[in-house]
Write a structure and sequence with these properties.
Helix content is about 0%, strand content about 50%. Strands 27, 28, 29, 30, 31, 32, 34 and 35 form an 8-stranded antiparallel sheet that branches. Strands 20, 21, 22, 23, 24, 25 and 26 form a 7-stranded antiparallel sheet that branches. Strands 2, 3, 6, 8, 9 and 33 form a 6-stranded mixed sheet that branches.
Length: about 550
Amino acid sequence: MRRNPIQLRHVSSFAQRAARWLRLPAALASLTVMTALTSHGLLLNNNTDNVTAANVTAYRFGQENSWVRVQNIGGANANVIVSYYHDGGALLAQDSCPSAACPALGPGQGWTFFTQNNPALPVGFQGSAVIESDQPVVALYAKDIRRNGFFMIDGNTTTTLAGSNRMYLPLIANRDGGQGDANGRFAVQNMSDTTACVTLTYLSNYTDGEVHWDPYKPGTSGQRQQGCPEGGRPIQPKGTMFRDPDTFGVRAPFTGSVRIETHKNAQGVEANQQILTAAADNYNTIYNPFTSYRAIDEDEMSTTILLPLVDRQVGAFNGFSTRFQIENKDPSKPAQVTVRFEGFDLGNGGVFVAKQNTFTVRGARLCFQDRDDFANCLAAGDRLPSNWVGTAKITSNQPLGVIVNRGTAYADIATNYRGFRPEDGARRVLLPVLNKSYGPVGNLRGWDSWFRVLVADGGSANVCIIYKGLDLPNGEARYCMQVFREATVFQFNEAFLPNGFAGTAILESDRPIVALANIYTDVFVGDPDLLYNGVPLP
């Protein structure tokens, strides 16, 4: 098998560059009882000033597992190897296709690898995975958690060798919120064959600037770490660094962002040759929302960000709203940020409503769509109407990264997605997992899905939806529709899709589009929604 890695920085060109390797710093776990990446299974809240007695008690994540679905987008059968690495970088186990457990993956076909089904992975495993293929592939990776009778899931798509020596996690928390219950964790993977010397810089929403450095602020006389004479903390080749509220080092309460960067190591390998990737989770120690996202690499930061799904108090009980976190690439260069919201007031006959404001972001800022004050990032006294759904476009004189969270005030459901750059727009977009009443139980439907399309330039486009699945006539069903700016399609409304459908879709358009897809189930109680970014194809 060819294993020459082709580095991917720009997602929109990924198939053209014959993508071959994927790396997943997914904090993968196999049948383990553990917390946010601590070794003894407990997350203790040691900040008693801000929390209730219930939150001070030990937090247990419960039973956590990971899986990854790999889809062949090449023109021939794919030979795929999934290698699992311990956090210290040691190879522990592998899965492969074709094999006794997995058939050959023909063009357009996929396979899901479950860590709990690999007997070589020990209980309590935490680490990362590398996927190798001799054909272009994409992957949807996810984590699911079962705790105290509740189910939580989230994940995202990843593309080949997405990473750089500088990564950004726009949204992370440490015992924040009204009850000190908002928390986060993250994992940083060294994709290089040499030691990576890594500094973590924490940027606070409260100060709009840098507040903490791990292990110390670059350029100061902090204690040098072995193997990293010019700064940073060492991560072994293919190794993974884990951080959670007990190991952040940043004082609670905290909500903000993290910048991850490298320094020249003791072997003389320059910082820009040490390639990293990262992933972050956000969770609640009282309730059950759980979100997960892939870090944004340096080249994915942009001066224009498209948000195809933004809303205020919509859906059941008018409960669903979004909020998004903005991270500035370089806090030494304050960003002049303009946010323009465009959408429809569903409580007022669907009338079109647009709002716009400009403000400064030095480090990080969180914008709440369901607030009527400064926190909504609009001008003083301005607000979005209740029962409003739409999109947002963010422009800036400095590169930014954006993560959007969406949740409801009346349930544990929470999801998130990464903001899109205009160059992420494509005329063909892959949605690797879609369902219609898949796995029903009694009167419960099982897994369903929906997807949302945004025309990248805000105009209209003719979009053809091509569903692919083994239970479709000749393996395929399609139709076309006109999309004016944006549209949402629910699979349970697609009469020609059979109940039990589990497949994929390719969206083909006469103008560049971006897309999101959400899979969800009514079988489990908790946070059973997974929202992911569609993958652009050539």
